[in-house]
């Protein structure tokens, strides 16, 4: 009887250990990593990126070259690799492609985190790195909101995904952080990526989240004091993407989503006026995040001191959460 008792206890112990080992690992909490996105870090980066030293970041000009080096150095420091070749973060675009006088060779900047389960499926998070340069009266157009805000947002989102990876929570799908040049002269950097040299096949690209001006408040929303974003394109190719976006917002933030500019009859035609369009035209679902225009749009007065950094932090966290859901859901969002 004594031996039977020992055998019974051993069996229970083994079964218990085996059961414990077979329990599925608790899924990662994205809020932990979203909180690494902070207003202070966004502000520190933007005060550099939208400073006079960058001379308005006009495509192909010395200030734009400083901008791409700034972005690259951030990824190198963070240990986020390039999908091109080791150490080479620049997708070179020859001046002939721009076909505009005075525009020199330029480059997109690419970095990525490889997915753990579906590495060939890609989520692209994009923003344009260029601006309009120096005005005729030698005033520098710093472009803090347009699109310094989108640029630094991507850098913070990339750091959040990297923090998750270090903690053992790699995204299931790959994330491409795509900083495009030539937006201000015709969406040419994103067009080059999509039409000439897609580093990842477009058929494998699940969605594009495009960030262009998310640091300010437009006149329509000033009185309410409530954080908001204009969303454009979320339902045009995939109702599933639109619903996912809505669900993420309701679960974590409850921002006001304004779809005014998503109207097919919107006279501003913003759906066609930022880099997401070069993905949408290739049947890739998109969301364009936008705070609307303001009095400082395309003027030297678009400076970093006018950014609402608390709003920028929350908006950036929202986009991170949306990318997290896209990257980690079981099935890629369907194109309608």
From TrEMBL:
InterPro entries: EF_Hand_1_Ca_BS, M28_fam, Peptidase_M28. It comes from the Bacteria. This is M28 family metallopeptidase. It holds the Pfam family Peptidase_M28. Residues 108-321 form the Peptidase M28 domain.
């Amino acid at each position: 009887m004594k031996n039977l008792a020992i055998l019974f206890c051993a069996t229970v112990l083994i079964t218990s250990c085996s059961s414990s080992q077979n329990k599925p690992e608790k899924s990662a909490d994205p809020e932990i990593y979203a909180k690494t996105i902070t207003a202070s870090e966004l502000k520190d980066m933007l005060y550099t990126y939208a400073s006079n030293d960058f001379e308005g970041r006009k495509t192909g000009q010395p200030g734009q070259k400083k901008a791409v080096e700034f972005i690259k150095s951030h990824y190198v420091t963070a240990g986020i690799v390039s999908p091109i070749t080791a150490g080479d973060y620049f997708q070179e675009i020859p001046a002939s492609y721009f076909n505009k006088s005075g525009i020199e060779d330029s480059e997109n900047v690419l970095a990525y985190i490889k997915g753990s389960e579906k590495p060939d499926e890609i989520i692209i998070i994009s923003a344009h790195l260029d601006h309009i340069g120096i005005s005729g009266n030698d005033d520098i157009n710093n472009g803090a909101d347009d699109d310094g805000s989108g640029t630094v947002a991507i850098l913070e989102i990339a750091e959040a995904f990297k923090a998750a990876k270090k903690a053992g929570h790699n995204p299931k799908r790959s994330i491409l952080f795509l900083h495009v040049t030539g937006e201000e002269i015709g969406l040419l950097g994103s067009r080059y990526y999509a039409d000439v040299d897609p580093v990842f096949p477009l058929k494998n690209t699940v969605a594009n989240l495009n960030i262009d001006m998310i640091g300010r408040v437009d006149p329509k929303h000033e009185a309410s004091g409530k954080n908001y974003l204009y969303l454009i394109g979320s339902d045009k190719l995939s109702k599933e993407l639109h619903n996912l976006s809505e669900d993420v917002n309701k679960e974590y933030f409850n921002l006001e989503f304004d779809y005014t500019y998503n109207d097919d009859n919107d006279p501003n035609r913003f759906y066609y006026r930022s880099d997401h369009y070069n993905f949408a035209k290739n049947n890739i679902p998109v969301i364009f995040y936008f705070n609307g225009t303001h009095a400082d749009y395309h003027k030297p007065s678009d400076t970093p001191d006018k950014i609402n950094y608390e709003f920028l932090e929350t908006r950036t966290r929202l986009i991170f959460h949306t990318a997290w859901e896209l990257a980690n859901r079981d099935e890629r969002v369907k194109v309608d």
